[in-house]
Structures are given as C-alpha cells and as structure tokens.
Write a structure and sequence with these properties.
Immunoglobulin-like, Methylamine Dehydrogenase, Chain H, globular, five-stranded antiparallel β-sheet, mainly beta, disordered N terminus
Length: 878
C-alpha cells in the first residue's frame, strides 16, 4: 500500500453535545505498562506509561486502570516517568515527536492534570532525545538534562545544567570533548543543587566509564573509580549523602559490581559477597536501585535476570533469580515500593509487569489491557456479536455477550518480529472469519485462511502469492461461498476471486485489473447483481464479466490522478443499494446512481474509512487514521452527508489508530479503535440526533508584532455567537470576547486580536492556546479546534500559508529566528515533488509568493526546511 504524510487538516467540521465514554476491550492477560510508580501521598494509587502517549493510573493497587493523562499528539512517545520532588507532580520526557520542540521534559500537576512546566533542551535543533534528567527540588528550577543525538550515524552526548528552569543553560559535558564517551545517567544531589554526578558509559576508544563528580555546577569535575562503566545511582531519601551506584553495560569487559558512598560521593567502597547469578553472554548490569521510602535500610536492585534485596542497609543481600526469557521477570527496568505498605511493590520489566504483596517473595502478573493491537474486525452476527483482533503474533476472539476472550497462536512477549495476523469477519455468516498471515519474503508465503467456528479452526485458501498485506475480503451477496479479496505490497495490488463451497477444495483465481495499483475498496451489491466495483488507486472500475473487462467510473472524479490521489475505502448504503460512498485523500464523495457519477460531500480531509449505518438511514461515520502529520479523528453525519461533525481529539484521548470498526445502534455508535499502546479502545458516540450549528471552514492564528491575530471562516451558520477562549495549558480556558454570528447565506469571515498575548505568555516564554466556543440558537455548545501560538527567543516561529484553498498564487508567511537559507518544496500526497527552490531570508518576517496555477486541483503539502535542518509541513488545497 502506498504511504504518505499530510499536515494538519485546515477544513474541519465540529460537533454539538457528543457524550462519550472510553473503555478498553482487549484481554488483560497481555498488557504492558512502563515506569510503574507509586504516588507518594494517595494510598494505593499507581501510575504507569503506555507504549506511546498516555499516562495510566490505578487507584486500587493495579487491579483496574484508566487513562490519567493523554499527551496531545499521537506521535509523541512518553518515557522516564517519575514522581517529581515534592510529590505534587509527575515528570516525564517526550521523544520522537515531529515537532522537535515538543521533545522536552514535562511536569504534570497531579491535582489539575495540567502541564505546569515544559523544559526544552537548549540544543533542540540537534533533534536530541533526553536520555536522562534530574530535578533538584519542588521548585523545579534546578535541572540537569542529559541529551543524546547522532550526526552521520555517530552518537553524541551533551549535558546541560540550569538553575532557572531553562531560561539559561550551561553546557557541562560534551562527549566530543571527552573521548566520545557517552553519558548513561545524570544526577543532582538532593542535598546540594550544585553537586552533580555523571555516570559514564562506553566510548569508541580504550577510554570508557568513570564516575564524574562536580561540586560547582559542572565548572570542574573530579573523576572517581576510573575505567569502570556505571549507570544507575540512588540516594537515601532520609540521608542524601548515603548513595548506592551500580555498574552498567560494558559487554562483560569487567565484573558486575555495586558501590556505596556514605559521604555524598567523595569516597566509594565496593559491596562484597553479592549473590549475583549473571547470564552467560548476557549484559550483566544493574538496571534500577530503589530505597524503601518508609524504611531506608531496605534497598532493592533490579538486574538482567534477578533482583536483590537488603534489609540491613547493604550488609547482607538476598537474590531472586529467573531463567533467561522468563516472562515473569526479565530485565527489570523499574521497581517501586508502596509508601503505605512496604510489602507491596511493582516491578516493570521486559516481560509482563509484576506485583508483589509479600515483599518480593512471590510475583503476580499485573494484568492490564494495554498493548499493541494491529488488526480489528467486528462480527455482527445474527445470533451473537464478536470482536476479532490480531496481536501478540496471533489473534483473539471476544464474545461481546459474555466478555470471554479466546487467544490463538500467541507468541512470546520477547519476540520482536513475530507474525502480524489480520482478522476480517464476515458478518453475514455466523462464526465466519478470515485470518491473514503474511509471509517472510524468504521461506514462508502469505496465507489467507477461513474459519467457520469463530476462529477456532482455520482452513487455508490456496494461492500462488497473496502479497504481504490483505486489504479487503468481500462476499458476493448472490453466492454465500464466493468472495473477492484484494492484497497489496510496495505500491502494487492484486485481486482474487475465491470459492469456499467445499472445505476439501477451496480455490482462488487471480483477476487481472487495469493498473495493478492497491485496491482499497470492493463493492458487490444486489442492485447490480452482475457487477463488481473496485477502487483501484484513484479510480473506480466496474466489471460485469468476472473481471475480463473493466469500465472506469470517473464522472465527478476527473481531477483525481494515481500520482497524487488514492481512494481508501468504498461502501454502499444498506437502505439504498444505488448510493455508493468513497473515502479519499481529498475527502468523501458520494454517488446516487450506482457509481456512474460522483459528488463531494466532505472536502479536503484525508478520510481512510467511511460507513453507512445499517440501523439509521442517512447516518454516516468516517475516520482519519494516524500518520506523521495528522491525528486519528472521527467525523459523522446524520443527514446523508449534508452536514458533518467531528469528535474533538481529547475525547478519544489523542489515541493512535489505523484500524477502526463500528457497532451501530439507533441512538449511538460504538467505535472500536485498534491502538499500538492501549489495546482496543471503545468510544461511545451519542447525541447523534442533534442538528449542527454551522460549518467551520477554518480557524487559524498568527502573531503580528506582539499581538495574536485569530481568523476563522464559516458557512451555513445557525448560531447566536462565538466566544474566543484562551488558555496557557490547553486544558483550562477563559473567555476573552463574544462576537455575534451573522447567520446569513454564504461564507463569513471573522477575526479577533488579542493584545494581551505577550503578558499572558510571560513575554513569550510559554505557548498560548486559543479556541472558539460556539453557541447555537437553542443554547447548545460546540468547540473549534485548539491552536497554539508561541514566541521563541523574541521571534515568532510560526509558519502559515494563504489563501487556502488557493487558485493561482500561494503566499508562504514565516518568521525566522535567524536569517539564512531555507528550502521550500511542494509535493503531492503520494510524495512526488512538484516544486522546489531555495530562499535566502533575513531575520524576522518574510512572505514568499509561489505560483501554483499549473497544479491540478487537489491536496498538496508544502515543506519548509530551515537552516538547522528542521522541516515544517503544511497542507493546502488547490
């Protein structure tokens, strides 16, 4: 299947009174959480992070879990979760976000669940990851950041110190100046905000390791235990001068060892007679050190295949050891002790997270439903309702009536590149589900199998090659044993016709198609019993002779091209067999005459999935999927596509998904999301009978000098007013002004200038968020998207384009912190570059005018690469 990225959607439609509840449907037997950490003040409360952008919470010692906080980007990866000094906030790091300045250290207020502080590394232009950090005290002003990055595939480390929460930074370590030795971890002494510790790792020469200690905020350093590689360190919460430190990974160059200092790190002694049971050819390193907060003579240390405990301050130790790759415990990365009950603890490891109720004597899997689900299908059978989903190398069947789940072919949690089975239910035949297993391209071939007993037994459908991804399996309504299925691989597609009437003689025949592009949609409807419709690339085709000949159905889609566009999905209205609908990278199109002609019903949104409700005539639901520059989102219409509403990102917890299934009711829709970090999330979309107050075509903002200029365009208004709201944390908003709606025919343009931007933003230090609260004539409320405006170093970093949509000339407006050479390019949604040029810009505001009259109508992406190599992308419509 072809892949492409798109920027933030500029034309958005909004909702009125959508109430929802997010629940989790995956089996709890395979869940993983990282950095599990006890709250220090609330009994039995535990936090953990998902694989991507959620902080989870349990208020009953891990028996049940829910989302505590969702970072507002489904491309962000959370790591390094800790309780911040003072116990009132959680600290964590964001990595891998396309917006480089979001890759930062964050403090989250536990009471308000709002970000109270964002600390961006001073070298953010290096695109660094924060490898470790240390916060001195509850004021959050003294911070040590250990950043890692690469240049030409070579690793580098820079460590920075600040005493004013990042307003000013001092570089205290650079690996390039120190034999290229990397820093494993960084610490500030809890007793002295100017005393720093760096545990060093490996370098490319004979110089490795050594503990570096500074008593003057990194101005000078004293070397301790030279040549030994170190990583983890822990300070006694009752006596910060009591410190324990463990050796790190050195690939068995030296013996694993534990060191203790009783005088704040000035002198160290090696712990003797540790009962270690290292793995032959293993990493053999200490991974975490934890003091019991209520009895600091009890210390826990996790290791690759064991954990150690002392109850006498390190005089004697006991070890609990596990076999390599034991799913109970392997490579423990975190251990947290209940501050209200020292016998209770959680261990995070590369196996399953574990809980102990007896001081570590026995471990029990801390079950939760949060893990990677790669496929999802809803079986809406007459007799029963089932969910099928692929995960853990196998697949699962869940009976929604009994909530019982049966796993099949589940693989070890340590298998990195296992199978990725896809499930596709045939809801018209009780118990029938297709299971697809891709080949490895070398020894095994792809297999499509069918089950008639809810996935319990599989019978393969033979074929020479099914490619490495299944896209659609659709039944011929005239024959309950005939199916059409499409497959794709690296931008090419294949189509098969299959017969499963005899279990001992299943057959499949490859069908020749016009272009061999991926086929993302197949329609076979009783209204046209002799016809099969396919969406191949960016074109609809039909055949009435079994695929011998194909006829294009392009009326209304003439501007679509296979180079720039794609049709992602195609379905038919159960209440009107002549009404077809397609999801495309340019929005949703509908046909009222069986595909002969098409018209747009939702423009300029990269819709990946669209379905008619089989319960309520005229109800349609659609979804965008997660990609590099767009988030998963839901759209719906109650009047056959005449008006559309969207569900705000925060209502679905900014989740990441590229597989969605629906269960329809008369007054609601259950939406099931397959996610890579929280399993299957179910969202109940209700309030579907209400009318929509308007069509919000755009809402955007820019900074003019020191003011924030907000502009929006609407159509089909049925409103009382717009209230402009402002926030500094994207959570709590305050109304600024009320603007009456025009409520006349045509489109309407509004604007508002916030002259208090610099004051509210602390003279530009923090971002400011804006949204519109819209009140309709009946008093019902809806909200726009939220936009962020931010100054950096006194200059605006925002980029915008206008007009959008554009006819002849596109104006690119940007503000550069420093002058220099900028590269501007325009690509189609398939990634093909259509324009490229270099511009030398002065510091400050610039406007670049780009002729686009030669571009075909469609959706495009403009990319701006600055002098630091950072690329910003914006989507525009021609």
């Amino acid at each position: 299947m072809r892949k492409f990225t798109c920027s933030v959607i500029l034309t958005i439609f909004f909702h009125v009174f959508v109430n929802a509840q997010l629940t989790f449907e995956a089996s709890p037997d395979y869940g993983k959480l990282w950095d599990i950490t006890y709250d220090q003040t609330i009994p039995n409360r535990v936090y953990g992070i998902s694989l991507i952008n959620h902080i989870m919470v349990s208020n009953d010692n891990g028996l049940t879990w829910n989302i505590f906080y969702s970072f507002p980007s489904d491309q962000a990866y959370l790591s390094s979760l800790k309780i911040a000094p003072g116990g009132k906030a959680l600290s964590f790091v964001i990595k891998n976000n396309p917006d480089l300045q979001k890759n930062a250290l964050y403090l989250l207020d536990i009471d308000t669940k709002a970000i109270s502080k964002t600390v961006v590394p001073p070298n953010w232009a290096d695109n660094p990851a924060i490898a470790s950090y240390s916060i001195f005290n509850a004021k959050d002003s003294i911070i040590l950041l250990n950043t890692s990055f690469s240049i030409n595939f070579s690793p580098f480390t820079k460590v920075f110190y600040t005493s004013d929460a990042g307003a000013n930074w001092k570089e205290v370590y650079y690996s390039a100046d120190n034999d290229d030795v990397q820093i494993n971890n960084s610490y500030i002494s809890p007793a002295n905000g100017g005393k720093l510790f760096l545990t060093r790792g490996l370098g490319p020469t004979d110089v490795d390791g050594t503990l570096w200690v500074s008593a003057d905020t990194g101005a000078t350093w004293v070397k301790k235990l030279e040549g030994k590689v170190f990583d983890q360190m822990a300070f006694n919460p009752s006596n910060p001068n009591d410190i324990w430190m463990g050796t790190g990974i050195d690939f068995v160059e030296a013996d694993e060892a534990l060191y203790h200092s009783a005088n704040g790190g000035d002198n160290w002694r090696q712990a003797q007679n540790l009962p270690l049971h290292g793995i032959e050819y293993g990493l053999n390193n200490f991974t975490h050190i934890t003091f019991d907060p209520t009895n600091t003579k009890t210390i826990w240390i996790t290791e690759e295949n064991e954990y150690l405990k002392t109850t006498d301050g390190g005089v004697t130790w006991a070890s609990t050891t596990f076999d390599p790759n034991d799913a109970t415990y392997y490579y423990g990365t975190n251990l947290t002790v209940n501050p209200f009950n020292s016998n209770q603890l959680f261990i995070t490891s590369d196996g399953w997270p574990q809980f102990s109720n007896d001081g570590g004597v026995t471990l029990t899997q801390a079950k939760n439903p949060f893990y990677n689900v790669i496929s999802l299908s809803y079986g809406n059978y007459k007799a029963s309702k089932h969910l099928y989903y692929g995960s853990q190398g196998g697949y699962f069947e869940k009976n929604l009536a009994t909530s019982s789940t049966t796993p099949y072919f589940i693989e070890s949690p340590f298998i990195v590149n296992g199978h990725t089975r896809t499930t596709i239910a045939d809801s018209s035949t009780e118990g029938r589900v297709f299971v697809y297993t891709p080949g490895d391209g070398f020894v095994s071939t792809s297999v499509l199998a069918v089950s008639n007993d809810y996935g319990a037994t599989l019978t393969p459908i033979p074929a020479d090659d099914y490619s490495n991804q299944v896209d659609r399996v659709v039944k011929d309504p005239a024959n309950s044993y005939t199916y059409w299925a499409s497959f794709s691989s690296f931008g090419s597609g294949t189509l098969f016709k299959m017969n499963i009437s005899r279990a001992d003689n299943y057959t499949s025949t490859q069908i020749t198609t016009p272009t061999y592009l991926p086929i993302e949609g197949i329609n076979i409807t009783p209204a046209y019993p002799d016809s099969v419709f396919i969406a191949e690339g960016a074109t609809i085709y039909s055949t009435s002779d079994g695929g011998a000949t194909w006829n294009p159905k392009t009326k209304g889609l003439e501007t679509f091209s296979d180079d720039a566009d794609i049709i992602w999905d195609m379905n038919v209205n159960p209440f009107n067999a002549s009404q077809f609908i397609i999801a495309t990278n340019r929005g949703i199109y509908m046909s009222q005459d069986g595909g002969n002609s098409w018209g747009s019903v939702l423009k300029d949104v990269d819709i990946r999935k669209v379905n008619f409700s089989p319960v309520v005539n005229g109800q349609i639901i659609a979804a965008t999927y997660s990609a590099q520059a767009t988030e998963c989102q839901l759209y719906y219409s109650n009047n056959g596509g005449g008006k559309w509403a969207s569900v705000p990102f925060d209502k679905i917890a900014y989740l990441q998904s590229n597989t969605i299934s629906y269960r329809f009711y008369e007054d609601s829709i259950a939406v099931y999301f397959a996610t890579p970090d929280i399993g299957i999330a179910k969202y109940i979309l209700t309030g579907l009978a209400g009318t929509l107050p308007l069509r919000l075509l755009s809402f955007a903002g820019t900074l003019k000098n020191t003011d924030a200029l907000l502009q929006w365009q609407t159509a089909e208004e049925n409103l009382k007013n717009y209230i402009v709201e402002r926030s500094t944390d994207a959570k709590t908003f305050t109304g600024l002004t009320s603007i009456a709606a025009e409520n006349s025919n045509g489109t309407h343009n509004y604007d508002y200038t916030d002259k208090q931007f610099m004051t509210v933003s602390g003279k530009g230090d923090i971002p400011v968020y804006y949204r519109l609260k819209m009140t309709d004539v009946d008093g019902k409320l809806s909200y726009s998207n939220t936009i962020k405006l931010h100054y950096a170093n006194g200059m605006v970093t925002g980029i915008s384009v206008y007009p959008n949509p554009v006819v002849n000339t596109l104006n690119l407006h940007l503000n550069s912190i420093t002058g220099g050479n900028y590269t501007v390019s325009i690509t189609g949604v398939t990634g093909k570059q259509l324009y490229g040029s270099n511009y030398k810009l002065a510091q400050g505001e610039s406007v670049i005018s780009i002729p686009v009259s030669n571009l075909s109508a469609g959706v495009y992406v403009i990319a701006i690469k600055d002098i630091n190599g950072k690329t910003n992308v914006i989507k525009f419509v021609k």
